[in-house]
Amino acid sequence: MTNDTRQSTDGRGLSRRQALAAGGGLLAGGLAGCLGGSATSSGPVAVASFFSFYDFGREIASETPLTVENLVPTGLHGHGWEPNASVTRDIIEADAFVHVGPGFQPWADRAIQTLRDDDVETALINVREGVELVDLAASLDPDEEGVGDQRGKDPHFWLDPQRAEQSVDNITEGFVELLPDHEGRFRENAKRYKTDVLQRIDDDYRAIFDAAERDVVQLAAHNAFQYIGVRYGVQMRPIVTNLAASGEVTPADRREAQAFIRENDIRYIANGVFESRRPAKELVAATQVEAYFPVTPYAGVREDWVAQNWGYEEIADNINMPTFEVVLGNKAPEDAGPDGWAEEWRNFE
């Protein structure tokens, strides 16, 4: 289904979606947004509310007429971001909206409700459908209850490559429904991605964690990495105990982290690429920790990553895996990652 074949005019030469986008009704819904690029393609377009699933989508859509676009701007974290109202046009004019399910991104929930209220045709693809979520970590702020239809559950499932496979399947089914003539290519791409990328990443992670003598990791980051711990049998201890990357670090959080570092003789810690450096610097200054290195829950990208066309796979290989090798004690920093990795990322700014 192309943009041309699904148009129905409202008497002024505009498609239904163009008419809605031009009017004020959708903007009154309190939507948030950022980019204005989803109408740049002359063919069918799917927009994604989160980087990881944009990346999965573009891999699945390779060599088909479908263009997949990421709504989250470069340099920003996809969880906790509140864009401005221009994203409304992107979603309305898109053929499909790939989202992370209810309760995770409030702006996406508002967008979906507005689409439904105004009877907009944009197909909705929930990447979380059918994914088994784990209970919230015991360290979680007790005031935080989880997400949407999965109260008491941790939403960061895509960090587990096996659970991420279900989201690839969900996106594939949505794309097949959107463009059934390209079903074979969508399914072939999805099968290749699950086998060559997600299963390979799972194997590599397993090798890293199985080789480690320690089974604890201190994170100067928010509570996003529990699925790594659950999948590979390691305790991932965040200093920010809520689910949002913008969460505040309390004096009690700092004291508990410092005690944990002393008790476990931790020399290196991990810090979120798109999060504050302050907690990590404070731990370096207050404990025996020598340095912090980068991790990310695949929730955003830097400009240099975009320039290198990095996706979920490249971020796993070049950011998360080398850091886990170091913080687990498998390798010295200078022996981890590609050439120059330790120099670039040691106590990064």
UniProtKB/TrEMBL annotation:
The keyword Transcription regulation does not apply. SUPFAM superfamilies: Helical backbone' metal receptor. InterPro entries: Bact_metal-bind_prot9, TAT_signal, ZnuA-like. Keywords: Signal, Transport. PROSITE patterns: PROKAR_LIPOPROTEIN (PS51257), TAT (PS51318). The keyword Signal applies. It comes from the Archaea. Belongs to the bacterial solute-binding protein 9 family. PANTHER family: HIGH-AFFINITY ZINC UPTAKE SYSTEM PROTEIN ZNUA (PTHR42953:SF3), HIGH-AFFINITY ZINC UPTAKE SYSTEM PROTEIN ZNUA-RELATED (PTHR42953). This is Metal ABC transporter substrate-binding protein.
